Amino acid sequence: MAVSGTGQATPASTAVSAAQLARLRGTSFGMLVMLIVQFAIGIVVNLYVSVPAADQGSLLHAFGKALSDPPAALASHAGLGLLIVLAAIGLVVRAVIARHPPAIAASVVGLLAIIAAALNGVRFVADGGPSNASLAMALSTAVAMLCYATSLFVLSGSRRPQP
User: Fold this and answer.
1) Coil, helix or strand for 52?
2) Which residues in the chain belong to E strands, given as ranges?
3) First CA to last CA distance, the chain
4) 52-91: per-residue pLDDT in tens?
5) Is 17 exposed, middle or buried, given 0-12, 13-18 or 19+ CB atoms closer than 10 A?
6) Residue 35 to residues 27, 40, 51, 78: CA-CA distances in angstroms?
7) 24 touches 150 (CB < 8 A)
8) Alpha-carbon torsion 95, 110, 64, 42, what sign?
9) Is the pTM of this model over 0.90?
10) Could you report the per-residue pLDDT of 130-160, keeping only the tens digit for each?
């Protein structure tokens, strides 16, 4: 609360607007949906796709080959993963602009989990598909999904500024 020139208490200007809350909720929901789709594609890749030997090598080489070469399931998984990283960065920026501490915390932890999943995904391709990279990818994705689900829960209960 701030005090106006007349001595009346007024809401602080840092209150989160209804539009900002709606954007944070919408982006969090979009992240959750993308992660669920990514998780499903990852299961398909893990069960039915063999990583081509030509894709193996350094991390950057593996990522480039996964995006540009067959199999299509692996390329779509890598492409969607890149979009998810960019969207997660965007959500962190939105949460910081809105100055909503729980949303900031959830989006930063979600981004870190997504980065961990992405690094393990590249390691999965570079090393020829080790099981521990697949497990780390899945668990990191689950942490990110939990962060965005928690964010939706917290944001649904956030108070809007009074007119």
Assistant:
1) coil
2) 2-3, 9-10
3) 14
4) 776 666 667 677 777 767 787 888 888 899 999 999 999 9
5) exposed
6) 12, 9, 22, 12
7) no
8) negative
9) no
10) 788 889 999 999 999 999 999 999 888 765 5
